Structures are given as C-alpha cells and as structure tokens.
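FAQ: What does the model actually see?

It sees only this:
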Amino acid sequence: MLRDYLPILLQIFVVALFALSALLVSILVGKRGTRTRAKDTAYECGMIPQGERQPRFSVKFYVVAMLFILFDLEIVFMYPWAVVYRDSIQQGSAIFWSMLSFICILMVGYAYALKKGALDFKR
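And it is asked to produce this:
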C-alpha cells in the first residue's frame, strides 16, 4: 500500500526541496540595500504622489460585494439542478423538495441580511 503513495510522497519532497532552495538562493543572492524615504514612496508613472495613498471605502461596499458573490454563486448551482430535474422527471419529487429546501435556506440568509440593514444604502 505504501508503494501506491510513493509518487505522491516523492512529489511532496521535490516541491519542498524546490521551495527551500528558492528561498535559500534568494537570501544568498539578493541585495540588502538601505531603505530610504524615496525608495518607499509609490511610483505613479514618474509623477510625484499627491494626497492620500488610497481613498477609504465604506464597510458597506464590502458587505454588498460579499452578498452579491454569495447569492450569485447560489444561482449558478440552480442551473445544473434544472437540467437534472428536467431529465429525471420520474424522481422529480425528491429533487424538487431538496431544491426547495436549498432556496428556503437562501431566503433565510437574505432575510437576515435585510434585517441587519446590509442592503440599506440610506444610512
């Protein structure tokens, strides 16, 4: 049985050896220069940077983005379900109820987001 895992173990060993050797070479060959204020400034096409580095975004922006990604991915799961449901109409009852429970769980999450005011942009 160990013979079956030998290629995987060999690959893990080669990867670890490569990673360690890459780190060692970068430490030995890399330059160790002094840090100055000019080196630490952002380079913007030859222009001297002005103002703040980046504007601050509201947390609301990130919450809406995460909710969009979450519900968007859930919709993607419904397409294969629709194909399977159409092809196996004889077993439709079990498939239908499983998707209905999935949609109910999504609606509970959506109601929670609405209750918490995640989609209220007036605040």
